[in-house]
Design a protein that fits this description.
The protein has 148 residues and is mainly alpha-helical. The chain has 6 helices and 2 strands. The protein has a two-stranded parallel sheet with strand order 1-2. Helix 1 packs parallel to helix 3 and helix 1 packs antiparallel against helix 4. The radius of gyration is 16 Å and the shape is globular.
Length: 148
């Protein structure tokens, strides 16, 4: 359960701060492929299955604002890469806890963030069967709800 922003919402907000536009997930994923993980953004470590992305979002915002105040050039690909790594790692950490606690044999990854290339590649070492929908079905949950 998320305590604040959902991961997709965090991607959207960070993309907006970076000037990448909406929806943020695909744009951050694309920018991240051109960057390097050089910025140490936080990974929340809450109880068991709880998520929190507000600290990560705030950390990126503070990093960007600080750089702008110092007239430093922003390396958008590096920021995107470092942000994406922290966001995805939190998901993977929680999934590993759940897999261990519930002895699951199969993991189904859905929602807009399930299209993320780093998230998809992060499952390569899992022993469990991991199912991802085709990319055309990995749309923003808010868009799907709005359609209904």
């Amino acid at each position: 359960q998320t305590k604040d922003d959902a991961v997709g919402e965090c991607f959207d907000k960070v993309a907006r701060v970076l000037g990448l536009g909406y929806p943020g997930g695909p744009k951050i994923d694309k920018a991240a492929k051109e960057g390097e993980d050089k910025i140490d953004f936080p990974i929340a470590n809450l109880e068991k299955y709880d998520f929190s992305y507000s600290g990560l979002k705030s950390s990126v915002l503070n990093y960007v604002n600080s750089a702008k105040m110092k007239n430093e050039t922003l390396n958008i690909p590096n920021i995107a890469c470092s942000f994406q790594k922290s966001a995805v790692q939190q998901l993977i950490n929680k999934i590993k806890i759940a897999v261990n606690d519930f002895h699951v044999k199969q993991i189904v990854v859905v929602g807009g963030v399930s299209a993320n290339s780093l998230l998809r590649s992060s499952f390569k070492d899992f022993k469990e069967e991991v199912i991802f929908p085709s990319l055309i079905y990995c749309t923003d949950n808010a868009a799907m709800i709005a359609k209904v």
